[in-house]
Amino acid sequence: MPDSPLDLADLPAIEGDVLDDEPALAAAARDWGHIVQARPRAVVRAASAADVAAVVEFAAARGVPVAPRGAGHSPFGQCQADGGIVLDLTGLARVHGGEGDTLVVDAGARWQRVLGATLPRGLTPPVLTDYLELTVGGTLSVGGLGGASHHHGAQTDTITELEVVTGTGELVRCSAEHHSDLFDAVRAGLGQCGIITRATVRLRPARQRARRRQLYYDSLGTFLADARTVVKDGRFDYVEGQLILDDDSGTWRHMLEATSYFSLPHDLDEAALLGDLADDRDAAESEEMTYHGFLDRMADGETVLREEGSWFHPHPWLNVFLPDDEVADVVTETLAATEGADLGDSGLVMLYPIRADRLSTPLLRVPSSELVWLFALLRTGRPYDPEGVARMIRLNAELAERVRPLGGTVYPVNSMPMTPHDWKDHFGGAWDALETAKRTYDPHGVLTPGQGVFAPG
Ligand SMILES: Cc1cc2nc3c(=O)[nH]c(=O)nc-3n(C[C@H](O)[C@H](O)[C@H](O)COP(=O)(O)OP(=O)(O)OC[C@H]3O[C@@H](n4cnc5c(N)ncnc54)[C@H](O)[C@@H]3O)c2cc1C
């Protein structure tokens, strides 16, 4: 809570809007997780980086917490500010073009919009998340992973420059060459040291089409072996995996999603790509679509989930990274203990490997292992069932605790309480640099309280 009551009349004049009506405050008190609710005193819809700078300077002088908010798809209050100011960045969404193989874009733009600007140039961001309606600033604040991460790392590894408003309201451009401490503190920095207002994204050539294959395995061991092979040799452009529970038999199937991009008239050599893989070939599925259609494949799923309502239900999600030599044991044990009710009706389990040598963002903490596995239990709770949701959150905390001594880490888009002590453990060798950057760039401790990384100033 702020040092003193916030008088909105004192806010500096800005181009955007200052809102304190009930619908605006109620919307900013929620997020996609539908678990945590913290009501701000005001919502500011920023129209420019200057707006962001003015509001943060104002808040810093008064010790008022400020939470930047992109698409609000956080699962556990990460974009909320109890009694403070939520800075809605979705109006800061211009695409500014770019030279050669780069694109400069405002941080409130959704990746869907970014792709819409790059594809006509025959270019694409190297890594996209599975869902394109997340904002640039929102995913760069956590890392941003997808099926192309085994080639190109996290989205934070594909950024060449950022424009950032620090916790004192200063507008700074940073990159690996200039203010590199700030660059390293904001990429996957959970909004602790600055609010990203603009990003320069490195692009690569886009192909026109995608062939998506879903390869099924009865045995976890065979699935893991094939996933390792294809990620190490890089034969596919995109690799992810899902573990699917058959509710009737209680058994799990393992699905490797392996996609290749290509442009006509060239075709793909399926025999060479699939010949040595040990999946149940009779069960394999393959479909072809446009490159954009593949990347935007969650759009149909979103429509269905919205219609059936579960899009608006609680989402007690857990994402952890596992080292390669522990993945088989941890996943076997976890699946054996997981029933349909632990995931919820539209719940999903994902598992895929990423080459650690492609990940270079200092604050994205991953196990020391040649391959790291993203293991995600994307649970959906029932509405009006706080005990059920609390149980799912407990399961999350137990699994995160179980993997820690094995060298596992969390990918921090989770529904699970984390204390500053937990965060210090999590950041490990990167903690000192983050703490120093926090003192330097957010000396009043006002930025992004919902992450709980630092004790309230
Ligand atoms: C359906 C769905 C699919 C997903 N798929 C993937 C996936 O494939 N890969 C993946 O890596 N993640 C995935 N995620 C997780 C997602 O990347 C994170 O939750 C992300 O932070 C959400 O972006 P957002 O724009 O909604 O951010 P918000 O929820 O608005 O904010 C997230 C955090 O970042 C801070 N923040 C927001 N904007 C800024 C900014 N400009 N500067 C500094 N801090 C900021 C907020 O205060 C908050 O702490 C998915 C989430 C959902 C709901």
Automatic annotation (TrEMBL):
It comes from the Bacteria. PANTHER family: CYTOKININ DEHYDROGENASE 6, GULONOLACTONE OXIDASE. GO terms for molecular function: cytokinin dehydrogenase activity; FAD binding. The keyword Oxidoreductase applies. Its cofactor is FAD. One of its GO terms (biological process) is cytokinin metabolic process. Belongs to the oxygen-dependent FAD-linked oxidoreductase family. PROSITE patterns: FAD_PCMH. Keywords: FAD, Flavoprotein, Oxidoreductase. This is Dehydrogenase. Gene3D superfamilies: 3.30.465.10, FAD-linked oxidases, C-terminal domain (3.40.462.10), Uridine Diphospho-n-acetylenolpyruvylglucosamine Reductase, domain 2 (3.30.43.10).
